[in-house]
Amino acid sequence: MTNGQVWPKPALQHIYDEYLTFEPENFNFNNTGYSCDVLQDAFKRYNSMLFLKATNTFKQNTSLSTDSIIGKMEVLNVQLTNPCENYPSLNMEEKYEIKINNSSGLLVATSIWGILRGLETFSQLVYLETDGSTFVIRRTTIVDYPKFRHRGFLLDTSRHYFPIESITKTLDAMSYSKMNVFHWHMVDDQSFPYQSSNFPNLSEKGAFGKSAIYTKDDVRRVIEHAKLRGIRVIPEFDTPGHTLSWGLGGIPGLLTECSDSDTNQFGPIDPTVEKNYNFIRTLLSEVSELFQDNYLHLGGDEVDSSCWTTNKKIQHFMDRNNMKNVLELKDYYFANIFNITRSLETVPIVWEEIFDENIHLDPKAVVHVWKDYYDHSIVSKVMKSGHPVLFSSCWYVNYIKYGTDWPKFYRCDPTSEAGDNPLFLGGEACMWGEFVDETNLLPLTWPRTSAVAEVLWSHTLNETDAKYRIEEHVCRMRRRGIPAEPANGPSYCHY
């Protein structure tokens, strides 16, 4: 296990064999630039995290030689050179520089988001000596910035409901690995926990129960918690499939009746009913107003169109409009949906199937690649078509196996396909919720998702080096209240 090594690995770092010690009660952050609530909140947060240790009785002697100790670290000067932005964005500037010198340090960044990343790095440079007596930091210089702009984590809150505290803990853990997008897959076939003010019956009848609902205040709490950590929140309302729970909400004609003889069997949203587009417009307008991000995930995956082929009314509609197959009907559906997102001035994200099926995409649409674990060539195909890409194919962290499995996520690096093409935005680790709830979310997610975070942030990857640093990162997360699983087998966190 390492001591004071940073996760994810910084772009450039020079380390000296000289150390400074801390007297925690005498250390402080000194703001020398612009300030705002986000910065002041970060100072409080990191002050509370810097000097955490167990309640064991420790020896009182440092194991460092006195020759290598060059002084006491008393202050970190923090210089934000531009006013704070209101909300993180795809193109937010996250670069920062750190210099740790004789008795003080300097953190400089041009944006508040870079300051947040730098504070996280500084907090990781501070460590407790193995004898448990002294907090120290090595003299070092760092220039750091991410490889990709979008470093996300998807959480599915439909198959199981997650209390808000589970979500905010997840956001905390994301910030410890410099992840910057929370993809909230909020609703699906199994439940509709989002409480809509325009259509309250969607959650009233579609959620698992009255205590398994996300109110608008809940959503605002998540968004604010995320913003304070430089994390965007992008909601997903997946249609036209994955919508069985929507059908419980009393929207007439929303779902497709699969046959005239069995009116209790339903398929995807009926694309031939004009009122359905009015409903979707109103719902997505409400969602876009609540969530502050410019991006909205529309789903579009795994549409079982068999009910479209057995419904006589839909078949008549297709005949009247000279549609040869259900893919043309799906194209018609998404043409209407993209008209809605354009009117809302939101950028749509869709799952890979929409691209694979040659559905006419909105020019700005982002394609989220997920299907083929081994074949990353779809990334190049999407970029050649002019569409931005998100990548998740081999980062489904809900799939588990016995033993050390973070390396399989670490070895999956799409950089060779992405090159330096700006259309490659980044990617996401995905936690689907069939067998995950608040009891096992955090241990299953971490440190496995930390491996994805390093692939998306760091410019040089070294699995051998990472093996030792991830051990330290696990202990760090545990100290901060994240019950991360063991990374590499037998180990022990000495603080």
From TrEMBL:
InterPro entries: Beta_hexosaminidase_sua/sub, GH, Glyco_hydro_20_cat, Hex-like_dom2, HEX_eukaryotic_N. One of its GO terms (molecular function) is beta-N-acetylhexosaminidase activity. One of its GO terms (biological process) is glycosaminoglycan metabolic process. The active site is at E302. GO terms for cellular component: lysosome; membrane. Disulfide bonds join C36-C84, C258-C307, C475-C493. Coiled coil: none annotated. It holds the Pfam family Glycohydro_20b2. Residues 6-125 form the Beta-hexosaminidase eukaryotic type N-terminal domain. It catalyses: Hydrolysis of terminal non-reducing N-acetyl-D-hexosamine residues in N-acetyl-beta-D-hexosaminides. Keywords: Disulfide bond, Glycoprotein, Glycosidase, Hydrolase, Signal. Residues 148-459 form the Glycoside hydrolase family 20 catalytic domain. Its EC number is 3.2.1.52. Belongs to the glycosyl hydrolase 20 family. PANTHER family: BETA-HEXOSAMINIDASE, BETA-HEXOSAMINIDASE A. This is Beta-hexosaminidase. It comes from Macrosiphum euphorbiae (potato aphid).
